[in-house]
Specification:
One of its GO terms (molecular function) is oxidoreductase activity. Keywords: Oxidoreductase. The protein is an alpha/beta fold. Helix content is 31%, strand content 25%. The protein contains 11 helices and 15 strands. The strands form 3 sheets. Strands 3, 4, 5, 6, 7, 14 and 15 form a 7-stranded mixed beta sheet that branches. The protein has a 6-stranded parallel beta sheet with strand order 10-9-8-11-12-13, sandwiched between helices. The protein has a two-stranded antiparallel ribbon with strand order 1-2. Helix 3 crosses helix 4 and helix 3 crosses helix 10. The chain is globular, with a radius of gyration of 20 Å. The protein starts with a strand and ends with a strand.
């Protein structure tokens, strides 16, 4: 099969087209003919940092975590999937798991679900990692009807799904972004858009919550921005982050009694523990998508498998609005 492989790590490392043996569907796995994959920030981190990250695969490496495709083989002990099924999932591209930047992937059946019928392969491939992340964060925080929720980075990959899921749960949702395009995306998903470059935290907390603060803050920006999330949170509020790789003074969180939730959705893949939870979330998410409650937004340019390097550059350049997708 054709695959795009990395033979070195680093910001200048390039993907090379390689012929590899086609994998087989072992016990508990299905062999999927990959139709599309999407690029996530963690993919670019692995390419750039390599062995500095404990989750990076050994070289030569096939990256790509998200995919949508068609089942071609079903391994022993697999139920619920058959040859010809259209599926989607996040099942490789790290540690010892071959990724989706290849014509075929052998995926643990616990990590996949049937593709939303209303989505194209490209759209479905954009959803797994960000969808699971958003779902887990909101579930941990116990977001419910009537709450005020702030999503930091509401036009981003995780952010735009979190906005839609929080609204589906009945929350009143605000989200930060900047520039006309990002703000339009946020408003298009039914949230109140906040330009973080034009409004200070104190200003939008006063105008949108009467100075009480938000019940839940979902911070997809993380790092130093967590201080803004603490400032925006109400007393005893829930703060969720997907980016906690930082040293930070937690005093503001202490004096508000905040609960901090760190979501790292790759843990089931890395530790082979609780993988069935991801399959369940993807199945539930597919039902919401087909009911019209959630829809992934795709970035405009199309990239072929041979253009993976350009797709990574698109995401890292900060130009993308929506998920960057690679056709396989």
């Amino acid at each position: 099969m054709k695959a795009m492989t990395l033979n070195a790590y680093g910001p200048q490392a390039s993907f090379e087209e390689t012929e590899m043996p086609r994998p087989v569907a072992g016990p508990g796995h299905v062999l999927v003919r990959v139709k599309a994959s999407s690029v996530n920030t963690v993919d670019t981190m692995i390419r750039d940092m390599g062995s500095e990250l404990p989750l990076s695969p050994q070289l030569p490496a096939v990256l790509g975590m998200d995919f949508a495709g068609i089942v071609e083989e079903v391994g022993a002990d697999v139920t619920g999937f058959a040859v010809g099924d259209e599926v989607y999932g996040c099942a490789g591209g790290l540690a010892g798991l071959q990724g989706a930047l290849a014509e075929y992937i052998s995926a643990d059946a616990a990590l996949i679900a049937h593709k939303p019928a209303s989505l194209s392969m490209r759209e479905a491939a954009a959803l797994p990692l960000v969808g699971i992340t958003a779902w887990e964060g909101l579930e941990r925080a116990g977001v419910a009807r009537g709450q005020k929720v702030l999503v930091q980075g509401g036009a981003g990959g995780v952010g735009h799904i979190a906005v839609q899921l929080a609204r589906h749960l009945g929350a009143e949702v605000s989200a930060t972004g900047t520039g006309a395009d990002q703000l339009a995306v946020i408003e298009g998903f039914g949230a109140r858009a906040i330009d973080f470059k034009a409004e200070q935290v104190e200003t939008y907390v006063e105008s949108h919550t009467g100075n009480a603060g938000f019940d839940t803050v979902f911070d997809t920006v993380g790092g130093a921005n967590l201080t803004n999330s603490f400032a925006a949170a109400a007393l005893n509020a829930q703060v969720i982050t997907t980016v906690a790789l930082t040293e930070l003074d937690l005093s503001p969180a202490h004096f508000k009694g905040l609960s901090l939730h760190i979501v790292f959705m790759l843990l089931p893949m890395l530790h082979d523990q609780g993988r069935e939870v991801h399959g369940r979330i993807l199945a539930d998410l597919a039902r919401l998508v087909d009911a019209g409650a959630v829809k992934p937004r795709l970035d405009t340019p199309d990239f072929s498998l041979a253009q993976v390097g350009q797709a990574y550059a698109r995401l890292q350049g900060g130009q993308a609005i929506g998920k960057v997708v690679v056709d396989v």
